[in-house]
């Protein structure tokens, strides 16, 4: 018997999210947790290749999220650990905060389980406040449109870079690691501050990432892969490569946030990296993506869906976040402008000797005034003469504005 023809794809929704990565997916999960009757379309550029070469891993500390966000993000979590470690030449330390990771696959599965979400494959050729046009000519309409395409707004940010290549291997014998090492900086330093990051996914599966804080965004894949191979051999890990991922994350030294949101007026709502929402020092984006998702979901619950209404709520949230991150951007300036590349490890090594609650608040982006003072007092990790030019953010913002107008 011949089946009924497939229905045409949805072209209208209450909320249109352009970008199916971390930020867009978390927005859908947060909306579903509050009001599962909202119809959401996510424009998604595609799934990873069969070998998962296009997959990503996003991680967070348990102390980064509110209890409410931890609840609705739980279905997307692929791996959890009860702690974490750091290693430096002079000391090693276990940290008590739990740690968790999402993968492209676990995040996609969580979103696909939402009945109110339609995934629309494709790329947007144009995005506006009332809809988007895809490259194949399809027009999608919604009263609320969110731009979560992941494009970093470089013209509004003075940046350093955190570059990484990660290789997940399967070992023939247990690798012996129970907890993540979020920074193993005992490795030789090259291309700025370098450390290796490891996530033990199973007794015989481990992700090894070679990570470097560098002045430029160029990524030498061969050099990073060689560094991973050297590290694995030093640990006694031989194995078969299962997948590979890479990234170039922005580290913010200055942010002209007011200008970004002024220029966004009248268009779709920026979200995620597109809105400059990431930790200025670590590059972690998940905690702020979760908070922004909660902000958007709450705005939609309080009023009829509209781009203007969500834009207003997100603007308030983003500008408040940017103001609170001022000290973190100072730390990035000290790291990139005040410390020589080979000396950057000393800055982080000193930081990880601080009290654990302070370290947790640092990652969550909730440092108190006392925390800020505690980070800066004592013997500085860089000479005072080198730190003084880093104090003011204004000159970098002025330079950004000049570049945007030329």
List the helices and strands and how they pair.
Layout lengths: L14 E4 L3 H13 L5 E5 L12 E5 L5 H7 L3 E5 L2 E4 L4 E4 L3 E5 H9 L4 E5 L2 E4 L3 E4 L4 E3 L2 E4 L9 E14 L10 E4 L8 E10 L2 E10 L6 H15 L4 E16 L1 H8 L4 E2 L15 H17 L4 H18 L1 H13 L5 H8 L4 H9 L4 H8 L7 H4 L6 H12 L1
Parallel strand pairs: 1-2, 1-12, 2-8, 5-14, 12-18
Antiparallel strand pairs: 3-7, 4-7, 5-6, 9-10, 10-11, 13-16, 13-17, 14-15, 15-16
Helix pairs in contact: 1-3, 1-6, 6-7
- Determine the CATH superfamily of the largest domain: FAD/NAD(P)-binding domain
Helix percent reads 25-40%
Number of domains: 3
Q: Give the neighbour order of strands across the main sheet.
A: 6-5-14-15-16-13-17
Give the distance, in angstroms, between the N- and C-terminal Cα atoms: 66 Å
Written description of the protein model:
This protein is an alpha/beta fold and 406 residues long. The chain has three domains: 15-80 and 104-156 and 254-324, FAD/NAD(P)-binding domain (3-Layer(bba) Sandwich), CATH 3.50.50.60; 158-253, Alpha-Beta Plaits (2-Layer Sandwich), CATH 3.30.70; 326-405, no CATH class. Helices cover 35% and strands 27% of the residues. The protein has helices at residues 22-34, 67-73, 104-112, 221-235, 257-264, 286-302, 307-324, 326-338, 344-351, 356-364, 369-376, 384-387, 394-405, and strands at residues 15-18, 40-44, 57-61, 77-81, 84-87, 92-95, 99-103, 117-121, 124-127, 131-134, 139-141, 144-147, 157-170, 181-184, 193-202, 205-214, 240-255, 269-270. The radius of gyration is 22 Å and the shape is globular. The mean pLDDT is 92.
């Amino acid at each position: 018997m011949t089946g009924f023809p497939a229905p045409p794809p949805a072209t209208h929704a209450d909320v249109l999210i352009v970008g199916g990565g971390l930020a867009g997916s978390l927005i859908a999960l947060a909306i579903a947790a509050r009001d599962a009757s909202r119809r959401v379309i996510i424009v998604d550029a595609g799934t990873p290749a069969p070998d998962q070469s296009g997959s990503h891993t996003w991680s967070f500390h348990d102390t980064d999220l509110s209890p409410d966000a931890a609840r609705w993000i739980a279905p997307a979590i692929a791996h959890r650990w009860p702690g974490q470690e750091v290693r430096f030449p002079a000391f090693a330390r276990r940290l008590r905060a739990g740690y968790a990771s999402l993968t492209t696959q676990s995040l996609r599965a969580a979103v696909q389980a939402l009945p109110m979400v339609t995934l629309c494959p494709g790329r947007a050729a144009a995005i506006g406040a009332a809809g988007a046009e895809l490259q194949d000519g399809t027009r999608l309409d919604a009263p609320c449109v969110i731009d979560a395409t992941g494009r970093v707004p470089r013209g509004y940010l003075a940046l350093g870079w955190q570059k990484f290549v990660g290789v997940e291997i399967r070992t023939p014998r247990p690798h012996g690691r129970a907890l993540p090492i979020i920074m193993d900086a005992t490795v030789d330093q090259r291309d700025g501050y370098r450390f290796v990051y490891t996530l033990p996914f199973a007794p015989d599966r481990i992700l090894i990432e070679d990570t470097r804080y560098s002045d430029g965004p160029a990524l030498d894949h061969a050099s990073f892969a060689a560094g991973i191979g050297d590290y694995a051999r030093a640990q006694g890990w031989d194995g078969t490569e299962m997948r590979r991922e890479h990234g170039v994350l922005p580290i913010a030294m200055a942010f002209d946030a007011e200008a970004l949101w002024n220029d966004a007026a009248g268009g779709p709502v920026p979200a995620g990296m597109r809105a400059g929402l990431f930790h200025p020092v670590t590059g972690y984006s998940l905690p702020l993506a979760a908070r922004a998702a909660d902000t958007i979901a709450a705005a939609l619950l309080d009023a009829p869906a509209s781009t203007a209404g969500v834009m207003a709520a997100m603007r308030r949230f983003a500008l408040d976040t940017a103001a609170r991150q001022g000290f973190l951007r100072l730390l990035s300036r000290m790291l990139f402008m005040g410390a020589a590349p080979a000396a950057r490890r000393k800055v982080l090594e000193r930081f990880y000797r601080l009290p654990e609650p302070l370290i947790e608040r640092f990652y969550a982006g909730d440092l108190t005034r006392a925390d800020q003072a505690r980070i800066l007092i004592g013997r500085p990790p860089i000479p005072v003469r080198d730190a003084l030019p880093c104090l003011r953010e204004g000159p970098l913002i002025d330079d950004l504005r000049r570049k945007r107008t030329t």
